[in-house]
DNA sequence: ATTATACGCTGTTAATTATCATAACGCGCT
DNA sequence: AGCGCGTTATGATAATTAACAGCGTATAAT
């Protein structure tokens, strides 16, 4: 898989990606004119990451502006004790490189693919130069960053208000309603990662999932989850 | 006090504020030229809030771009159950209006003065227009928003990692080291507000402060706190 | 002076969560 | 197949935190 992405990298990513047709073009580049756009398009590199591969590493210098075309990633940070905390999950429209690209020299968080993920990579200096010359583009970026950040903060606050069961319910509904839009889905993360996300222990995540199963709220087949009593789960999320 | 701020409001805030000398000018407006600046200066209104006064209210439409000149505020959000959560505290250089000014029509959080606070208020549309025409200004704003957000996220993550005692120690050190730069200070918030900030109950905040007092780590006189054993407090914050 | 009210403080009990221990299971590897 | 390893699973116990109840104090309003 590493080979695959390297191959695409060497091809300059031209194989699968046409900027003109890109869904995301309107999000980031609606105020960028055709000649500028072709300039951006020439330097962009499309890159694929398999589930589990690290996209950016905490502490590394930020050289690139990255946006997601496809897939699912986690943002995480390693504490001084070596334990990870997951800050959020992002799918394409939510993710604007890293939040700190315009204020920090190094990545404050790591980004890891939790499903096969395709990103487009632009040289950060080029993007910055464009932003400095095109205020509407800069404003678009600002709005995107703002939205992404707000979403993370609101989600964190919502989780903080809840107890163990409510937090687990919240996560299940997050994947069911927001990510997969289906009552049945395959969890893209381990129980430990759920724990890192909601700030509880792995054992309690496992235990609580088992309880939900015993209470016939969900069915579990390894990582496959089926939500059989959504109302109850919603209720636990809202009031637990 | 309400009268005082009204008076200043009616004076168009010209009484005490000269934009040319303003410390914050370089932060937000370093890339705004003299004529633009005088334009901005003409429409700005300086406003004072006494401790406890609400500056912006969650849910209200965002019409203004606000930045702090002086003071201390809290950002908070009310949950569906009516309970408040405090997201962060901000002093002048940290605070860039509300994070969502460029992505949302309404305030997602409330801002309340927890010390007497002076802010400068600009019409949001005017600021947006300036940003749309001056990309460097837009970039400056973006960097500010990014920094402010990162600080909030990192602080929240640090708190999340800790237990009750570590969280209390964290808060005490936050005010001592970051806000007041003094081992002795007056807490600008109540025990309940500390609880709302760290996500624990008021009783436990009070109890823990008492324990710290019994352990001779701090001295307490109502809201006055004196940190007598900073090393131990730091240790509790780092490992508790 | 009296009432109301918010706040700070403490003790007790109940609930929640972490920690430790153990075991089954799946999966890649040889 | 058998081994090693990480994940999932469950139980017992300890630690932590919440919830409830009570009480004193300061402050402001009547």
Give the helix/strand layout:
2 copies of one chain form a homodimer.
Chain A: H1 2-10, H2 25-29, H3 34-43, E1 45-49, E2 54-56, E3 64-78, E4 84-90, E5 110-123, H4 124-133, H5 135-160, H6 164-180, E6 184-186, H7 191-198, H8 202-214, E7 218-221, E8 224-227, H9 230-239
Antiparallel strand pairs in A: 1-5, 2-5, 3-4, 3-5, 6-8, 7-8
The structure holds a DNA duplex (30 and 30 nucleotides).
Record field, number of beta strands of chain A:
8
How many helices of chain A?
Answer: 9
Kindly name the structural category of chain A.
Answer: alpha+beta
Helix content of chain A: 40-55%
Mean pLDDT of chain A: 88
Instruction: Report the sheet with the most strands of chain A, covering strand number, pairing sense and barrel closure.
Output: 5 strands, antiparallel
Run of helices and strands of chain A:
HHHEEEEEHHHEHHEEH
């Amino acid at each position: 898989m590493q080979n695959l992405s390297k191959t695409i990298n060497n091809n300059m990513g031209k194989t699968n990606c046409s900027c003109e047709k890109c869904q995301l073009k309107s999000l980031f580049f609606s105020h960028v004119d055709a000649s500028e756009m072709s300039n951006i398009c020439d330097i962009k590199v499309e890159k694929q990451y398999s589930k589990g591969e690290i996209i950016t590493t905490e502490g590394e210098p930020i050289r690139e502006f990255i946006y997601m075309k496809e897939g699912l990633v986690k943002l995480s940070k390693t504490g001084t004790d070596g334990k990870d905390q997951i800050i959020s999950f992002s799918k394409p429209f939510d993710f604007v490189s890293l939040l700190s690209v315009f204020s920090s020299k190094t990545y404050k968080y790591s980004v890891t693919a939790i499903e096969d993920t395709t990103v487009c990579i632009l040289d950060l200096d080029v993007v910055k130069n464009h932003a400095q010359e095109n205020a509407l583009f800069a404003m678009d970026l600002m709005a995107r960053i703002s939205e992404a950040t707000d979403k993370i903060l609101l989600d964190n606050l919502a989780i903080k208000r809840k107890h163990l069961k409510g937090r687990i319910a919240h996560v299940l509904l997050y994947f069911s309603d927001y990510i997969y839009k289906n009552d049945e889905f395959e969890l893209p993360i381990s129980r430990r990662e759920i724990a890192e996300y909601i700030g509880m222990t792995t054992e309690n995540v496992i235990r609580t999932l088992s309880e939900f199963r015993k209470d016939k709220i969900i069915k579990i087949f390894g990582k496959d989850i089926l939500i059989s009593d959504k109302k109850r789960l919603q209720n636990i999320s809202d009031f637990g």
